Amino acid sequence: MSQVKKLSHVNYKKSFSLTILGIIGLLGIFAPLLMPHDPFAVDITRKFLAPSWEYPLGTDHLGRCVFSRILLGIRYSLGSALLIQMIAIILAIFLGAFVALKRGMIDFLFIRICDILLAFPTLVLAFGLLGLLGPSLKNVLIALIFTQLIYYSRMIRSLFIGMNEKEFIQAARISGTTGVGLIVRHYFPNVLPIIVTIVALDVGKVILEIAGFSFIGLGVQAPIPEWGMMVNEGKQYIRQHPELMLYPGLAIVLVVLLFNRLASSLKNFE
Amino acid sequence: MTLLEVKNIEKYYSQRQFIFRRKHEIPIIQKVSFSLREGECLGIVGQSGSGKSTLGRIILGVERPTNGEVLFQGVNLYEATSKDKKMVRRDLQAVFQNSYDSFNPKQTIFEILEEPLLNFEHYSKIERQHKVMELLDCVELANTIAQKYPAQLSGGQQQRINIARALALNPKLIVLDEAISSLDMILQKHILQLLQTLQKERKLAYIFISHDLQATHFMSDRILVMQHGQLMEEIQKGQTCQHPVSQELYNAILPSHPRGRNKIRY
Ligand SMILES: Nc1ncnc2c1ncn2[C@@H]1O[C@H](COP(=O)(O)OP(=O)(O)OP(=O)(O)O)[C@@H](O)[C@H]1O
Ligand SMILES: [Mg+2]
Question: Residue B47, class by beta-carbon neighbours within 10 Å (0-12 exposed, 13-18 middle, 19+ buried)?
Fold first, then answer.
């Protein structure tokens, strides 16, 4: 009975966060239709307006509509985090599977390189890369895809190799399955739940990293309404208008929390 | 004609004894050699932990021996090219001791039985379905089981699916590791009879690993007795055993009548 209760609670938690995240996603996709104003339109005469029907969250120091900027920001914050996770995990599955199948020298080199790179905290590694590439949205994507890729491919390699000892893998080999067939039919379906959970759990982390880079000026550049960037722009006016930092900050917190909730419900479920 | 030749197989597992002591090599199989003809059934008996399953896995080519070689139809399993290996795979099948562990929990029974067919036969989907149904029939399982997952089957049903999978490719040799141990007596008899019929019809050879001496006797032309990873004795059909280790095993069989104790003969 308690098991059933727990499951339904987990299901509720999962569907709740999924629904809200879905709505946020839709808002992001249809942002151009829903924005009351052009989020890039500067009008100095209308700066720091209080919330009104015309400007639901007021305007910022350049007279831009904060609400419109937050809506469009979904694409930059949430959208790029999802993109990063997608690309990183897909590349990691190929790379990890390749290394796990080959073993030997390739595996040895792969592990050494990963170990060296993972010895740096991911943030420091991404910093270094961004420093080399220069600040821009594209380079943030590249840097974060790279750091996530190292971490994920190493993880997937270990998951796959850990399964080598399983008797059903041996049974499958005896049935004549090799290489790609083993990966597709046996390794992958059995590690998929773990992968999904970890990827979902890290979306929050990646959003925070993107925002962090923007905040210190290494990431997304000025007019783009990425939430971290908006917090950064608002910080000069923190005394007079703290809400300029508050709105994008709350948006970040909300999305990160929802993703963590989603991930923990996935974890409980498996 | 010899089908399988096992030459001086040895297997060691290394084990760290204690944190500071050196690594210890523990022998699991020591100097085991034998050969098997086409269509022959070889029994392997021995106490639990004597290395029967390990030997079975080595013969199957999934666990590399420390020393020695295994030749199947003249091909060295551990040095074969991938083309040779593929040929061997088709003819050398297995039924594992732990049925449940040998299934991918994410596959349905149909997918499990279909897998060898996908790898080796160029069947259409319909033909594969027919073949799977045929296999299920062979091991006396209902067709409806095909859509279930391994966890939804009883131990005996799992074991029969394992046997069906081994039969799917018409192999030349099947290593049966405790293949019938969780079946009821009636079913055991049916499966053993099925195996014997196949043996005659297709010249199928078996390596029959079991605790169950009676079943092993029923099936086998020769029996190898193992202890501590060594072959103690080879008993031919119709002979009585000589070696003390074998005698101990045989004396442990409970006779159907108390007066018959110590008089069991093969
Ligand atoms: N992976 C392993 N690492 C270390 N030791 C192992 C490993 N696998 C098996 N052994 C040891 O090898 C010995 C033989 O095991 P094996 O499974 O072959 O026995 P068995 O004869 O099949 O026994 P049973 O009749 O109970 O199935 C055992 O003592 C076991 O502890
Ligand atoms: Mg065993």
Answer: middle
Tell me the β-bridge partners of B208: B43, B176
Both tokens assigned to B63: 């666990």
The domain locations on chain B are 2-252
| Residue of A163, A165, A175, A185 for testing the chain B interface, max B β-carbons within 10 Å | A175
Class of the A2-35+73-268 domain? mainly alpha
pLDDT digits (tens, 9 = 90+) for A188-218: 999 998 898 889 889 988 998 988 888 888 8
CB B225 within 8 A of CB B236: no
Q: Which two tokens stand for residue B110?
A: 């149909």
CA B55 to ligand 2 center in whole angstroms: 9
**ipTM here:** 0.85
pTM of the full predicted structure?
A: 0.80
Could you tell me which chain B residue has the CA closest to the CA of A191?
B106
- Type and span of the H or E element at B207: strand B205-209
Could you tell me the fold of the domain covering B2-252?
Rossmann fold (3.40.50)
Residues in a beta bridge with B95: B176
Work out the burial of residue B80: count CB atoms within 10 Å of its CB; fewer than 13 is exposed, 13-18 middle, 19 or more buried. middle
